[in-house]
TrEMBL record:
InterPro entries listed in its UniProt record: Pectin_lyas_fold, Pectin_lyase_fold/virulence
Keywords: Lyase
Species in which this protein is naturally found: Litoreibacter meonggei
Gene3D superfamilies on file: Single-stranded right-handed beta-helix, Pectin lyase-like
One GO MF term: lyase activity
Protein name (database record): Pectate lyase-like protein
Length: 763
């Protein structure tokens, strides 16, 4: 700070050559006597040391010299009074800066120091410089501390000591020295004071680091200008940006004490660039674990390649969080889906590979694969251009041989696919506002324990969250909203998907999905799907409905509990199995569907809530619990809630084991499903064999494989109406489809019995 420079303030008094009528022999106030025409003082025009100067014979005990002009003293400013003097003859005096402290109305400020340190002249002809600093604050180095009431001063010198000496005095100099106190007076340091140049090209790396080192707990100011940084810069102190910075892509700016998006936006002057650089610092520095977006809405003109933002980091496994803001996809050609078509060869001996792929260089990692025998949500995880191979996220159920495949590369607002591995990454309280322009988040090929919580995936064009590999292992998705861009379309016309999972042990809790093509496509096992609400209906009556939750691993070890499945069905299949026919592996089983709400409005009568679709022969069910659920239909009835989709292959119902389908409630369902199920059967005429048909009640067109109880209701009687106490045995698995149980009595009887049958062998 220097008011003489910044404000053009005139501080130095006029030279003696301009006349002595403005130089007082008193305190400098108006009306005091001056040196103009004074007998013992004269202007000397050509001194060898000073040029023009004032020569004075000391005749008073304290000989005063004061400039009568009012030199302003502004709050926060510090002035230095500097006078050069030499003794010519006679007695040698002591010299000091002297002043008058002026306040409002021209009154003197009392109780303040008005004399600077004295300097004794000890020889003749030697030039001595006398100085003093005056200001409002009592700071180290300030000689005259006048407080905040002083408005101006009359400055000059005092000659003390014996009279009779002659001295010559150079012109009085007054300058603003506030800058000398800035580093201790202000709570910031300016990078320009350490050599930074804001011309956009000069490398300021060293200057920035020097300013940070000197700050010592104070704030660093990056003042006006564009400052280029050619190297990495870490601020250990807080930093404030008036100017902006530029730096290479591979160099990072770490703001250790104020790491948030607001400061990066101020630093780089471009929101999208600032987001990339802030993410880069998030991974490059250990002084912070989360990037706060400060509630800001950040416009994205294209996909953010998260790996490109940190080009020297391929794997990262420490917890990091992006939170508290909105990312807004702005319509731009950069969001255009990439497409390619190539032929390739598939073999079950390498079930995750396509070989002999033509045009492989033009197929993007992260592309969705489609073709004959390809299941849903199969992505390109990696590629080898030289070997002409692609690595796939899932196996293909019926694609052996060479055929043509299509590849679609959706564009994601946050694209992590360039990383080899990224674990423990969190996105929290972020609204990904895709607006039908973009997809939202693509995971890397590998990683662990991703956590998406309290986020809005708002109108993704194609996908909300995509896993192209195994980074979804242990993934948690909690309290997120998946809001479709296709809500006005018929359910069967929608193509968007909330998320997919390829690995194991995901926790999907308390989310809400509105009218997307599907809520989720889930492979792997060990998943818990709890407390979610996904609905996929439309405004059509008597219309088909689609699968909202698709499970693609037969031996699933999945719990589906406390959810609200609205106008869609759960599909359980093995479409991600290169050898879909049952061999010696585990078949369909280890699935619990407990305590959920299933509802449909205006669905076609053939609609079903739970569907099993085997993609190969020989499969069966071993371990299924469907209990405590509510199945309700409004605006029409449906025939039943379960279905075995045999369009590719059928289940082997003779091998059903350990199935519990009980305790459910049904509304507007024509035929209930239950196992074990107790039914009442009557014969009005005596017969030895009673045929009891359970086929309508048993799940998935299953057989009545076991009878657990036969209890007569009242007496059994013969043709003469005489009570009969007879034994019986049962033949289950009878009739077309095996859904009938025959009860064979020791003699022909009539009456009524309650019979309990199961669709399975319980153990």
């Amino acid at each position: 700070m220097n008011k003489a420079i910044t404000d053009g303030l005139v501080l130095t008094p006029p030279p003696f050559a301009n006349g002595l009528d403005v130089w007082s022999r008193g305190d400098g106030t108006p009306g005091t006597a001056t040196y103009d025409g004074y007998a013992t003082a004269a202007f000397v025009p050509a001194d060898q040391d000073f040029g023009g100067c004032l020569e004075v014979l000391k005749t008073e005990n304290t000989q005063r010299l004061r400039y009568m002009g009012e030199t302003p003293l502004l709050p926060g400013c510090y002035l230095q009074i500097k006078v050069r003097i030499k003794a010519i003859s006679g007695n040698l005096p002591t010299v000091r800066v002297g002043a008058f402290a002026g306040g409002a109305g021209g009154t003197a400020i009392t109780g303040v120091q008005t004399q600077g340190p004295g300097v004794a002249l000890t020889s003749y002809g030697n030039v001595v410089e006398v100085t003093a600093i005056v200001g409002g604050g009592a700071r180290n180095g300030v000689d005259l501390s006048w407080g905040r009431d002083a408005l101006y001063g009359h400055f000059g010198i005092d000659l003390a000591g014996p009279n009779g000496g002659v001295v010559r005095i150079d012109d009085v100099q007054i300058e603003d020295v506030t800058g000398a106190f800035l580093r201790t007076m202000m709570d910031w340091v300016d990078v320009k004071d350490f050599g930074a140049v804001g011309d956009g090209t000069t490398d300021n790396t060293d200057a920035f680091e020097a300013a940070d080192a000197a700050a010592d707990g104070r704030e660093v100011l990056v003042s006006d200008g564009v400052f280029h940084l050619a190297g990495n810069v870490t601020f250990d102190n807080r930093v404030r940006f008036q100017g902006t910075v530029t730096m290479p892509t591979d160099k990072y700016l770490a703001l250790s004490q104020n790491f948030d998006f607001d400061h990066y936006a101020a630093a780089f002057g471009d929101e999208e660039l600032a987001f990339r650089k802030a993410f880069q610092a998030l991974l490059k520095q250990s002084s912070h674990d989360s990037l706060d977006l400060c509630g800001r809405s950040i416009g994205l003109r294209g996909p953010v390649d998260m790996r490109a933002a940190v080009p020297d980091v391929s794997s990262f496994t420490s917890r990091r969080v992006i939170r508290n803001g909105q990312l807004d996809a702005i319509s731009d050609p950069a969001w255009t889906t990439g497409t390619a078509t190539s032929s390739g060869t598939y073999s079950t001996s390498q079930p995750y590979r396509l070989s002999n792929v033509t045009n492989v260089a033009n197929i993007e990692i992260g592309s969705l694969v489609s073709g004959n025998g390809v299941g849903r949500e199969v992505y390109v995880t990696s590629k080898n251009v030289g070997a002409q191979t692609l690595t796939l996220s899932q196996q293909l159920y019926d694609a052996v041989g060479t055929q043509s495949y299509s590849f679609k590369r959706f564009r994601y607002m946050l694209d992590f696919s360039g990383f080899q591995k990224l674990s423990q990454f969190n996105i929290a309280d972020v609204d990904l506002k895709a607006d039908g322009v973009a997809s939202c988040v693509m995971l890397p090929p590998a990683g662990l324990i991703w956590h998406l919580r309290d986020c809005f995936f708002n109108q993704p064009l194609d996908r909300a969250v995509t896993s192209i590999g195994l980074a979804c292992q242990g993934m948690m998705i909690d309290r997120c909203q998946f809001i479709s861009n296709e809500q006005s379309l018929a359910a069967t016309a929608r193509t968007s998907i909330g998320f997919n999972i390829n690995a194991n042990d995901a926790k999907i809790r308390d989310n809400r999905c509105i009218r997307m093509g599907a809520f989720a496509v889930i492979h792997g096992s060990g998943h818990m799907i709890l407390g979610n609400h996904w609905f996929h209906g439309d405004n059509l009556n008597g219309a088909p409905r689609v699968a909202g939750l698709i499970l693609t691993k037969p031996s699933s070890k999945i719990v589906i509990n406390g959810n609200y499945s609205d106008n869609n069905y759960i599909e359980w299949n093995n479409e991600h199995d290169a050898l879909p026919n049952f061999s010696s592996e585990l078949s369909f089983g280890a699935l619990s569907i407990v305590g959920n709400i299933f509802t449909a409005i205006g669905a076609a009568s053939y609609f079903r809530f739970i569907v099993i679709k085997p993609y190969g022969t020989g499969h069966f069910i071993n371990g299924l619990n469907v209990s405590g659920n509510t199945f309700k239909v409004t605006n029409g009835n449906i025939d039943r809630v379960d279905k075995m989709d045999g369009s590719v292959a059928s289940l082997d119902t003779s091998r059903f084991r350990n199935i519990n389908w009980s305790g459910n409630t049904y509304h507007a369902i024509n035929q209930w499903t239950q196992s074990p199920v107790m039914l009442s059967f009557s014969e009005s005429s005596p017969v030895e064999t009673w045929s009891c048909d359970f086929s309508d009640w048993l799940p998935f067109g299953g057989r009545a494989r076991n009878v657990t109880d036969v209890t007569p209701v009242g007496a059994l009687r013969n043709a003469n109406n005489v009570k009969q106490f007879v034994t019986h045995y049962t033949d289950p698995n009878e009739g077309v489809g095996g859904g009938t149980v025959d009860i064979i009595w020791g003699t022909a009887v009539k009456g009524k019995v309650n019979v309990t049958a199961r669709v399975d062998n319980p153990y």
